Amino acid sequence: MSVLWWLVTLVKVGVIFGAVLGVVAYMTLAERKVSGHIQLRLGPNRVGPFGLLQPIADGLKLMFKEDIIPDHVDKVIYLLAPAISTVAAFAAYAVIPLGPPTDFFGLLPEPVPLQIADVNIGILYIFALSSMGVYGIVLAGWSSNNKYSLLGGLRSSAQMISYELSLGMSVVGVLMMSGSLSLTRVVEDQAGLWYVFLQPLGFIIFIIAAFAETNRLPFDLPEAEPELVAGYHTEYSSMKFSLFFMSEYAAMFTISAMAVTLYFGGWQGLPGLGTLGIPPVLWFVGKVAFFLFLFLWVRWTLPRFRYDQLMNLGWKVFLPLSLLNVLLTGLGLVLLR
Taken in order 53, 237, 83, 260, is the CA torsion positive or negative? Predict the structure, then answer.
């Protein structure tokens, strides 16, 4: 591998990592703005024009807050847990394609893919890292030596197991149609028709299970404030507390990008119309922005499930429906061939 390849890869890592950090920061502002408008309030509007500097002020505040480590915690695991959740959430973005290969207006001798790594098991890589994220939550709950934190960690592990099955099975239909685990190949196969039109049931299961995977309302049982105070991060403060929030918003960004890649053509334009002169990267960003707004809209619109409703929905409704989707996809492929 040449020095140029390493240089380009490092630049891509830096740009994508910086972009995800920026999205995470300003998603906190968007969350408060959207909730404010839904509740007929203004939201943050004092720090900078239209409140645009509020995320910076919040970050500085958290950095300078006192870092309290309770005496009764398992210190090593307590400190490691937020890092596990954050690293897993950020690293998952490495295999998602942002656009077609480009030579950056002739600056490079040959086109390079707009993703950090084009691996042929990209979907398995993302699922593996999303499974790792729950370890941070479970370890945070256990190491805090707090009943509320422990209950939050246990709830998160049970919820993850219940909905990760449906999430994985909902994607099988896409894999059967594309014949590849590479996300780049999945996007290229949607040049003529997005998979959401061919896999409507799979998409519905995927997006609802994604809410459960990211612990967002109406599936935020691991940190239900009326019952568990703050759940698994009750004993956390300062930047360790903010790392859990960063991992949640980064996971939202990743799952939104994955939904766009698997079902809405990724960076492809409208089926049959192409990109309409709009850069493919902007198509991708616009679609992801829609799903991020959907996460915020649902949070401030729907009430939280009871825990028994959460489990019944995962095991008795979504899992059978996801298996049915695989069966219908297989039958469709056989009949069409």
Answer: negative
d(CA 188, CA 201): 22
CA angle centred on 248, ends 232 and 254, rounded to 5°: 145
Alpha helices, H only, 92-233: 122-143, 147-178, 183-188, 200-213, 225-228
The DSSP result for 18-40, as a single string, is HHHHHHHHHHHHHHHHHHHHHTT
The answer to pTM > 0.70 is yes
* CA-to-CA dists, residue 164 to 159, 168, 239, 322, angstroms: 8, 6, 29, 11
The 10s digit of each residue's pLDDT in 20-63 is 888 888 998 998 899 888 888 888 888 888 888 998 998 888 88
Query: Which phi and psi angles does 336 have, rounded to 5°?
Result: -70, -30
The rounded distance, in Å, linking the Cα atoms of 260 and 169 is 17
Average pLDDT over residues 228-242: 77
Residue 245, both tokens: 């929030």
Q: What is the DSSP-derived secondary structure letter of residue 112?
A: B
